[in-house]
Amino acid sequence: MKLETCLTGFVSSHVRSNTHVAPRVTPWLFFYPHPFRKEDFNGIPDLASNPIRTQIVEAFFDQRNFSKDGDGKVDEIGFEEFLVVMSHFRPPSLPMTDEQRDSVRKEKLRFLFNMHDSDNDGMITLEEYRHVVEELLSRSGALGKETAKGIADAAMLEVASISVGHMEPDEFYEGITFDHFLKLLATFEIESKMSVRFLNMDTITLCK
Amino acid sequence: MFWRRAAHGRVGFRRSLPELGLLLLATLVLLEGSVLPLGAASSPETGITPGAGVSHGHADKNHSETKHKKPFPVLGLNYDSVKTPFEISLWVLLASLMKLGFHLLPRVSSIVPESCLLIVVGLLVGGGIKLIREEVPPVLDTKLFFYCLLPPIILDAGYFLPIRPFMENLGTILMFAVVGTLWNAFFVGGFLFAVCQIPHASLSHIGLLPCLLFGSIISAVDPVAVLAVFEEIHINELLHILVFGESLLNDAVTVVLYHLFEEFSEAGTVTVLDGFLGVISFLVVALGGVLVGAFYGFVAALTSRFTYHIRVIEPLFVFVYSYMAYLSAEVFHLSGIMALIACGAVMRPYVEANISHKSHTTIKYFLKMWSSVSETLIFIFLGVATVEGPHQWNWVFVTATVILCLVSRVIGVVGLTFVINKFRMVNLTTKDQFIIAYGGLRGAIAFSLGFLLDIEHFKDMREIFLTAIITVVFFTVFVQGMTIKPLVELLAVKKKQEAKRSINEEIHTQFLDHLLTGIEDICGHYGHHHWKDKLNRFNKKYVKGFLIAGERSKEPQLIAFYHKLEMKQAIQLVESGGGSKLPSAMPSTVSMQNIQPKNQPPPPKPTERALPQLTKGREEEIRKILRSNLQRTRQRLHSYNRHTLVADPDEEGFQDIILKKQKMMELDRKIKEMANYLSVPSHPKDSPTMSRARLASDPQAYNIKLPAGGVPTIQVDLASPQSPDSVNLLDEIGKAEQKEDSGLMMKPPESNGPEKAGEKDGWRDQQKLTRCLSDPGPGAEEDEDEPFLP
């Protein structure tokens, strides 16, 4: 509960100030002494019923989301890193030129890509994709495993067909690269869909 | 009289078909005009007896005492007793033939939207009738309109309403519908009152309240007109749902304002209390309508749970419950349109999970048919009613009305968008605003409401109002309707995307939903996604189990979507006999074989391959079987016309195409041999029935029948070590899953039968699929959109 309100207040103040995400010294850094760990996130009750909670939590601790060159995972994050991750969900600020829109799309799709590509090899392989689908269907019980495989396989096939088109029987398609991923979700209006609004957050509570 | 006219039609028989069709239509129109007076003329003679011969006999009997018998009348004329149904049928026939006729003239229908043409036809027919009889039958009877013509259109719209975009933009839509309509009504009404005060316009007898009443009638955007025009211009989903949603939801506002001002016109004065009550009334009308609709929707869903044994009347429940919702709402002066929309939208996910596939098709086709005929009739009647009048043309009033409507619409949209954009994620650009403003068409609802005005109370004003309403309707439908298409092209407004939903997009939509819900939970911010997720979970846990029969209630959406797509591909394969599909599949020869898990030995050297060497022929077989099992992304490949099977000879792999086509022809022949075991006649290669079956928004597909006392079918396991000729009786669902799996797994062929085995397997697939086609099984699908709330 405390974590939530702290985060809420902090994030809202940040977002409303509408600046680039850069390390800022804020009052709350002083109040919340230790960095976050994964267990802290597990304390959030509503998250428990989310089928992909593991992946979401992982995303916060993934250094690739902190900066362009980051790599690997960390065990603890501070506020700045938390904010960097949250900033991926910033609503688009209008008006946007086409380049801006492109870069926003890339940034958000990169985030998604990193979530899928758990072993960080720059490609989403069949196994990883299967894992994604299984997680999504993890709440459905019995039907899950086999059908999940089928779905993931069909999806993979589709990506390959779109991206590569004609392949000889002895060629291999190893995984979805970031470019293919972009192409795949080209019609998906990710810049507007992947945003969270922080509108009515006037209460900024102090955390003890 | 009409024989002469028919002969006239035969004169130009050597001209080309469209012209002949046109003449035929003209003939029919005139026939229409002549039969109606014939019917009317014969009515004064009724009252005696049916049958001329018999009447003579009776007359004779009455007058003379002699009992001599007349010969039995072989042929008699009795028009009166069938008069009403006959005329109704004649009108419906006219409407349908008009629709046919317009497609004979493609050039005209590409420039002029259908609605305009229909109004012109109505004008012609009305004019014809007036010439012949000096009097036009009052066809646009308000009762007829509101109880017979309007409900099918609204039900069609509500049942197939795309819920996701609607809910996402609900705030915007409500703003436009409520605030926009209010603004329009008061602006137009107020300024018209000012105009009426102009000394020499002879309008000074129109008071403020009648003006406001008129404003409220004329300000509502009409769903029929919007549908008719927007259907042809294919703009992007967002704009379409905004304008269309607005036209549906402003009914509540219109109802309240109309009754409010009508009451007060009689009373003469308005107090603050009345205004306050008006606001309360609006809430009651809107919410009440939605609740009534939702109630009937739930009852319909519940009923459909038990229709397992009597599939034939399933569509009837849908129609009757919806109509009852509409009528019930009208009883209490609630918004019937909103009730209808709510009923359709609420019942749909559950009903579709319960009913059979054939019922689903029936519902879809009936709704489309009724709404199409209704729409046509409405426009024709509008034309006829224009000719009928009563009219009183007042230049000042009419021009003021038209101008004010336009101005108020533009100001309203711009102002509202300015406010709305502060709250929207995706802002509405100027182009969007223009289209929204320009798409605010008025239609028959306004006219009918005008017609409803009490003749006694609005003595002098009614005709003026009606004339003005008709003019505005004509203006919007003709001018705006005709020019919106070129304007859309000119402004390069984003068009509707043709690509169907792919499995990847579906996966990511769901993924994104969960992701955003998770982020909101982390923030502690109970936003849009959080509540949506909660509702979905509630729906899944309680509601679905209650309203959906059997196993279907537990099926997650992604799986349902996937099955549906698969079956759809399978059906398409079967119906075309397989041969013509092949060329389009050629450009992508990716099969599962190409997609390897990462931990295979990395780059396989040419000498050691991960897969054993396969003969070219065997590979072809395997690939073909896989293709018949897996979803293909046809929508992204060349769409080959069924008629042009010959691929470009320069295309690489042309030889492959020929080879494969030959193989598929063999399969085809085999299927035809077995045709006597199938209860479904094989469709011809280009079956317009099936192609028209794919209406835009719904993929039609079967679902795999679930093991509710599973019907055993004959299956051959693809990778089974048994010889291909032995068969196993197995449970269908288990088989289906396993077959998918084994088909996809692409183990190095242990199924080392001869080449023939592959073909037989392929053939048996087809048999299984066609058996599914013939089964009126209970399997049904959910639509590609989502159950309750997405």
TrEMBL record, chain A:
It holds the Pfam family EF-hand_6. Residues 104-139 form the EF-hand domain. Keywords: Calcium, Cell membrane, Cell projection, Cytoplasm, Differentiation, Lipoprotein, Membrane, Metal-binding, Myristate, Nucleus, Protein kinase inhibitor. It is a lipid-anchor. It comes from the Eukaryota. This is Calcineurin B homologous protein 3. Belongs to the calcineurin regulatory subunit family. CHP subfamily.
Automatic annotation (TrEMBL), chain B:
The chain crosses the membrane at residues 112-132, 144-161, 173-195, 207-229, 276-299, 363-387, 393-421, 433-452, 464-488. Keywords: Antiport, Calmodulin-binding, Cell membrane, Glycoprotein, Ion transport, Lipoprotein, Membrane, Palmitate, Phosphoprotein, Signal, Sodium, Sodium transport, Transmembrane, Transmembrane helix, Transport, Ubl conjugation. It is a multi-pass membrane protein. Residues 93-489 form the Cation/H+ exchanger transmembrane domain. One of its GO terms (molecular function) is sodium:proton antiporter activity. Residues 733-742, 756-768 have a biased composition (Basic and acidic residues). This is Sodium/hydrogen exchanger. It comes from Fundulus heteroclitus. The lineage of its organism: Eukaryota, Metazoa, Chordata, Craniata, Vertebrata.
